[in-house]
Amino acid sequence: MPSRCVFELPASSGLKRLASSLAFVFDIDGVLVRGKRALPAAKRALAILDGNNRFGIKIPYILLTNGGGVSEVTRCNELSEQLGVQIKPEQYIQAHTVVRSIVHKYADTPVLVLGGRGDTLRQVAEGYGFRQVYNTLDVLAWNPSVWPFHDLTMEERTSAKAADFSKIPIGAIFVFHDPRNWALDIQVMCDVLRSGGVIGAPPYVSECSRRPVDLVFCNPDLVWKSEFDRPRLGQGAFKEAFQAVFKALTGTTYSYVQLGKPTEQTYRFSETVLGRYAGGNSSLQIYMVGDNPESDIAGANAAGWKSILVNTGVYDPQQGPPKHKPTHEAENVEKAVLWALEQVLQL
């Protein structure tokens, strides 16, 4: 049975009004789920926020993750089934959702989108409003000698988009999600960035008419927590590998824009989404519950939110204190929610 808050408040209590100003932002992996398995405490915590509390009210929350790789609708359907509650797209932000806020700059520009399986993220990007979206499988289908160490499967070949990349000036590269083939993707990225956008063209020089290609990473996490006992390498590790190769080739790293937690742009975007979901309430007291001090806690602290670090994911208290100190530490997400509600009683 879901646990219940232990507070008994009269309906007219000002504390009920204070509780209604609360809002939560949850990380997903390591907080609510581990791989495909929902954590038991997560179901109880969400039940509390759905009204199973002595305040008798529903408390708004959104999910904020550095994961991605599929559409928001697809992921919400998966999470709803895992968690046993309905997660709506309007309360869900994944790493590349924030790209919606800048898509207008690139709507008619040829862009390269990295990560995910097959052409799934091409479809996601097109759903955001990009009109000319390509991926590295398209490049390999165009010219297999670009990276002769990978033969396209029938499924990959079927998903590839026919294009002549010697005539297409790529204007931006977006790393939406963790690449599946680091070697292929790093090779193509270097080709695009060094040539000013046209694969196979002479190396880019500052005097040429083409402007430098924009590079955007959507997730800075070096590691993340899966069902495996130890953390796994994330998109941040891919970025480090790319920059090391690019520097070895050119003597310098490539400038880029970073999105995802803990960047300010992602947290401000989240505040807007949460305020809209909470009915336009612009004076919410926000509690971020996360398992990664480097992303969840650092970003929440910088945004002026309350932060709660749980012990069910990346963070291991046996490895020493976290680099970024949270407002509070909790064993799991249920205890994090109960602690936040207790703070209302102390106001």
Task: List the topology elements.
Blueprint: H1 14-20, E1 22-26, E2 33-34, E3 37-38, H2 40-49, E4 61-64, H3 72-83, E5 92-93, E6 111-114, H4 120-128, E7 133-134, H5 136-142, H6 154-159, E8 172-175, H7 182-195, E9 214-217, E10 223-224, E11 232-233, H8 235-250, E12 257-258, H9 264-277, E13 285-290, H10 293-303, E14 306-310, E15 328-330, H11 333-345
Parallel strand pairs: 1-4, 1-13, 4-5, 6-7, 6-8, 8-9, 9-12, 13-14, 14-15
Antiparallel strand pairs: 2-3, 10-11
Helix pairs in contact: 2-11, 7-8
Task: Offer a few descriptive terms.
347 residues; alpha/beta; 5-stranded parallel sheet; 15 strands; disordered N terminus
What does this structure look like?
- This protein is α/β, with parallel strands linked by helices and 347 residues long.
- The strands form four sheets. It has a six-stranded parallel β-sheet with strand order 5-4-1-13-14-15, sandwiched between helices.
- The longest helix is centred in the last third of the chain and has 16 residues.
- The radius of gyration is 22 Å and the shape is elongated.
- The two termini are 29 Å apart.
- The N terminus is likely disordered.
